[in-house]
Each structure stands twice: as structure tokens, then as C-alpha cells.
Amino acid sequence: MELFEARNVDKVFAATQALTDVSISVKEQSIFGLLGPNGAGKTTLIRIINQITAPDRGEIFLNGKKMTRADISQIGYLPEERGLYKKMKIGEQAIYLGQLKGLSRQEASKNLKQWFEKFEIMAWWNKNIEELSKGMQQKIQFITTVVHKPKLLIFDEPFSGFDPINTNLIKQEILQLRNDGATVIFSTHNMESVEELCDNIALINKSVKIEDGPTDEIREKYKSNIYEIRYQGDFDNVASSLGNQFKIINHSESEKENRLKVQYLNGNSNNELLQTLIPVSEIRSFEEIIPSMNDVFIKAVEESNKQ
Amino acid sequence: MNKTLLILKQEYLKRVKKKSFIILTLLVPFLFAGMFALIIFLSMNNDKKERTIAVFDESTLFLGEFEDAGYTKYHFLPKEEYQDLKGNLKNSEFYALLYIPGNIYSANTAQLISEKQVPMELSEEIERKLSRFIENDKRQKVVAESGIPDLEEQLSNTKTRIQLNTLKISDSGEATKSSSVVAFIASYAMGFIIYFFVFMYGAMVMRSVMEEKKSRIIEVIISSVKPSQLMAGKIIGTALVGLTQVAIWIVLGVVVLIGVQAFFTPESAQQMSQSLMETQSQMNPAMAQAADQNKVMEVMQMIGNLNLPLILFAFVFYFLGGYLLYSSLLGAVGAAVDNDEDSQQMVLPVTFPLILSIMLLFPIARNPEGPVAFWASIIPFTSPVAMLARVPYGIPTWELLLSMFLLVLTTIGAIYAAAKIYRVGLLMYGKKVNIKELFKWLMYKN
Fold first, then answer.
1. What pLDDT was estimated at residue B24?
2. Which residues of B touch A144 (CB under 8 A)?
3. Helix H segments across chain A?
4. Cβ contact, residue pair A99, B6, below 8 Å
5. Is the pTM of this model over 0.80?
6. What mean pLDDT comes out for the span A39-67?
7. What is d(CA B162, CA B179) in angstroms, rounded to the nearest whole number?
């Protein structure tokens, strides 16, 4: 079931087209990656979802109903450019932010204490923000984003400023939140985390959505019939038997085994390649290379820029 | 809880709990009290320095005429000593040397020679003594020559001093005693207080908006509340801080004033509280008569005769109107800029009318009926200060109503415009903003 949907959203800022007819839909209890180069329009879309700006055209739905101002208490938003009040005690500040999202003081305090204990940062409660490092501040910001147990979580570049240990911690928390029932939209340039976390993605370039769907399917779609084969046998024999149907991308030879990376130019099936190879070599492993999200990103954006 | 209320509470408590607020609020009345106490103390103990002045009287008219007065003593010298002293005044015991020439009767001049700057009080005192003596001398001669026996007495009877009591006739025909001096002071003080508060608290709103923008917490906040709610909470919360401060100052001020009065002159303090109570109700004529004899009471009475309810009403109205007008504009400036330098450039054009109105305060208080006063108190951007300066003198009802109406209208317009700029500006970073740019933002659809 769809928790969130944006239909045909247009947005123009003065002379810049920020979004052109963008539609996305996000399944309940899934993690949705919003990808795109800098300036593509991701943050604008996120701000429209958060009702910070209104679209020029198009509609936003939450739980199948048109979204209203009242729905923002069901959203938790961690913006890309984020900060906290410098001269305020951390605990007080977190309670205030929770209250602004509609929690009572008691609820906010109770939920926050659970999170602070979970992250083992109870000692920071009465400190000023200025005393904390940037990574520590990010943790507080993460907590204040989720404190009101929102149905929809929106993270804009959640991992920037975190060290690998904390990045991992936040990743685990995002997965946990999803498993507990939350739906997550997040935007990042960290493609590795997209592969790890995202069930679905949408790719936006120059205000237009150029790709969307389940992460696996998109990677599958962008594969280009490249295979990596480890074998024992003579490379020249192998190469000549492959003929002009294949393009050899690279190869290496050693005493133990040889490696070969080939692209099947107009091949039909994997078996065809295997059948060609079996007579001339002993195959140790055979793997079709699925492109990384990083490769997909670059390829998709470059193709769309050419058009 | 309502979100505007939540922000209001947050803004209010944040400021009121600040150490600097508590210290300033508590300290200001004591600073004023201390200042008054110091002035009273100094004037009670003025000039205790012993000075001996050497006098060389060439005219020989004044011998023995200079009596030692207070801490100033006079010592007459013969000519030889005078010559010695003149060249060596520095090492002598004398503070100054007074030389009265032989022809003082016709020349009308004398000399006071000193190594130091002689206090004006002293030189005036000597001047007075010399003049009075010669004047008396001349008059006695005239009286003697005229042959009229009681001329001396008749002349002294011609001395007259008129005191001008200004009375103001109200619509009902009652005449009340007014004083243009009291009205002037009241008008000046009111205009200044309004200016001070509007400026101080308007700037506070601006800084608070800028702080949220600079620390980048703003995006989280406006994903929770509407910018208009945020702005309303901030402006009202800050206004309450101002009112709290005023209330504390009034209470402390009254306490301190009574304390100071009681300390220096217990009697006058008593009279003051007495007359305060009585002037609240209508003055009866007998009372007014008695009050004439007492300066303090008279002033209190005149203050009582100012239209206090109207002044208080006007003060609250124009304070709120002026504050809302300028704080919403300054709030918009705070949202539009993202560094202190730009904000300073933008603050001046926005607050210029306010600064102009404080410069006009003096001419307005001097001539509250003139065209400058009229226009300044009608135009909404200067009216909070200018009208308050006119109110103590009394003001035609239609002018007051027109001015209030225009102020309300302009304030509503300013809040509307500011809210738009605020919405656009809050998430705008790294853009050099000028007035032209702001007008463009005003035209944005949303």
C-alpha cells in the first residue's frame, strides 16, 4: 500500500525550473531513495512534501488523502542544512522541538530519555550545543527528527558529517525504524548506502524524474552483459573462440588461473557464452556483473544529459 | 498546546531567564536612584573649599565692605604688598587677587587674577557684591539730592515679580492649572521612552530571527510550524518581555523614589504621597490654594492635571502599534539577510523614520501645534513617537483618531508584507539582499 504519493508536481523559482511533472510513490514501511546530482530538485521536492513550499501544480497525498498542514506532525524531517539553538540546553531544546511537532512535554521528555539512553548520551542532557562536536550534534538532530514517532521520515543527506561508526549506527537505526513500521524517504550521494538500504529509488536530473523503481530492478536494467570469468586454459584459444560477438574488456594471466572480463555484444543468453567457453577452458567461476548504484547513477545522468 | 503559544512561551522564558535581562532590569532603577542621590548629595555639599582672596582696593571705597562668606574669605592689602603678590601669586597663601581700580565708578571694571580657573560661582558672587555696592551708593546720592524724604521706600516698592500661571479650559468649562514645563518634560520623556522600547525590542526580534537562520535550525522549525505562527510567537513573546521589564521598573521605581525622598526630606515625601492621592480625584479649590505654597505639591498637581488616562492609553496604544510595525519589518530584515554586515545596511533604511521622529521630538515638544508636529504625528512611521510627544499638551480628537487609524492600517499592511518576505527569506542563503530584491519577494505568489 502506498503511504505517500506526489503526482505531477511542477515548481518554478523565478527563472529556474526546479521540478517538472515529477511523480513518485512510496510504499508503506519501505525505504525510498531520492537520488540526483546537486541542484536537480531533490531538496525542493522534499520541502514540498514538508509543506515548507507549495507546488505550482500537482498534488501530494499521504495515506491516500490529500495532504494538509495538519499532516506535518506525522512527518519527521532532517534537513540537509541543519542546526540547533546555540545557547540552549540540549535536553530543553529537544523537548521544545518535540513539542513543536505536537507532543506534550511529558511525552517528549519520556521519548527523548529513551533515545538518549539508547545512544548512551544521557550525560549531554544539560550541556549547551556549543560544547558538542559536529558529529555529536548530528546525533541530537537525528533524535529530534524521530522523537515524535512519525509515520513518514525524511532524511536529506543523513550521513554527512558522521564518522563510519556513527554512519553505521544511523543506518541500523533507519532500518530498525522501517522494521518498526515507519516509511523512510532519504536523499543522499552515498550510493553504497542506497544499495544497502533502499527498497526503491527515484532518480531526478535537471528537474525531471529520469528513473524510478525497485533498486534491484534498476541495477538489472542498467547491466550491460558484462561477465567476469575465472578459468584455466590458454587465453589465445579462449579469445579466438569468442570471435567478434564479444568484446574483451580486460584479462589477466597467472600460474594458478586466468581472469577475463568480457562484454557480450548482441548475445541472447548466459548459456551461449558458457557453451562457447567450455570446450576451450576449465571454468572455475562465472559471474554476470550487476552495475553498482554508483555506475547506474553516472550512466543514467550522463544519458539524460545527452538528450 | 497551540504552537504560537508554545513559541511565545519559549521566546519569553528564554529572554526573561537570561542573566543580562535580570541584571539590567534590576540595575537600571538603582542606577537612576544612585544618579539622583549623587546629584542631591553633591548639591548639598557644594564647594567646601576654603579660599582666601587678596583684595587691593585702589578706590578705597570697599574697605571693610567684603564680609567673609561661607568658605570664601577676603583679605585687604596695601599697595606695596599688592605689587609683591602680583608677581608671586603662585607661592602665596592666596587663591586669587582682586584688583579694584581707582576709577571703578566710571570704568565699571575690576580684575580678578588667579593661577587657576576661578569657579563661575565665585566670580559671579564678587561681581554681584561690587555692582550692588556701587548701585546702592549711586542711589543714595540720587535720593539725597532729590530731597524727597521717602523716595528710598517708594523705589523699593516698585520692585515687581510676576508669576505666570497657565490655566487650561476643558470642554466642560473647567479651568485646571497646567504647566507647559511639566507638559514639555512629560512629552519629551514619553516620546523618548517609546523610541527606546520600539528600537530595542524591534532589534531583539530581528536578532532572534537571524539567529535561527544563521544556526540553520529554521528549516526544522518551519517544517513543524507555519512561518506566520513563528513570527507571531516571536513578536508577541518579545513584547511581553518588554512589558515585564516596564512593569518591574515601575514597581522598583516607585519603591526607590519613595525611599530616596524619605531619606533626604521625610516631609516632602509625605506631602508627595498625600498629594498623589488627592490629585487622583478632582482637586478642590481649597486644596489648590494650599498647594500653591508647596513646590513639590504643585508639580504633582500639574502632573495630576495632565490627562493621565488618555496619556496612558496613548502610550500603550502607540507602544504596541509602533512596536508591531517596526518589529515585523525588522523581523523581515532578519529573515532576508544572513550575516550581520548586510543586516546593518538594511536596518538603517527601515528604521530611518523612527530616528527622524526622535530628532523631531524637540521641535514637536516646543511647538506641539505646528505643522511639523501635525504631520509627524499623522504619518504612521513617525506617529508612535511624535503623537506621544503631543498628547500631554492635549490634542484634537479627530487628529488622534486619524493618526491611530492610519497606524493600525499601516501596521496590518506591514505585517502582511513582512510575513511574505519572511517566508521567502528564511530559506534563502548566500544572496545579497537589497530593497529592490525584497520588493520582488513581495510579488511572489507564495
1. 85
2. 220
3. 42-49, 90-100, 105-118, 134-146, 164-179, 191-197, 215-221, 235-242, 270-277, 293-306
4. yes
5. no
6. 90
7. 15
- Residue A60 forms contact with B (CB below 8 Å): no
CATH T-level fold of A2-220: Rossmann fold (3.40.50)
How, if at all, do strands A31-35 and A75-78 pair? unpaired
pLDDT at B378: 92
What is the signed CA dihedral for B112, B115, B121, B125, rounded to 10 degrees? -20
Cell numbers describing residue A2: 502506498
The pLDDT value given to residue A122: 92
Q: How high is the ipTM of this complex?
A: 0.82
What is the CA B413 to chain-centroid distance, rounded? Answer: 33
Residue B199 CB burial class (10 angstroms; 0-12, 13-18, ≥19): buried
User: In this structure, are B210 and B138 located in the same domain?
Assistant: no
Sign, CA torsion B75/B76/B81/B85: positive
Residues of chain B with pLDDT under 50: 269, 272, 278-293
A101 touches chain B (CB under 8 A): yes
A-chain residues within 8 Å CB-CB of B223?
50-52, 72, 75, 77, 79
Q: Could you report the per-residue pLDDT of A199-224, keeping only the tens digit for each?
A: 999 999 999 999 899 998 999 888 88
* Number of independent structural domains in chain B: 2
A274 Cα to chain B: minimum distance (Å): 56
Size of interface A-B (CB pairs under 8 A): 60
Domain shared by B55 and B30, yes or no: no
Contact assignment for A144 to B223 by CB distance below 8 Å: no
Cβ of A84 and B6 within 8 Å? no
* Between B443 and A151, residue with greater pLDDT: A151
Q: Given a cut of 70, is residue A226 above it in pLDDT?
A: yes
Which of A81, A192, A87, A166 lies closest to B216 in space, CA to CA? A81
Which of A94-103, A281-290, B80-89 is modeled with the greatest confidence?
Answer: A94-103
Fold for the domain defined by A224-289: Alpha-Beta Plaits (3.30.70)
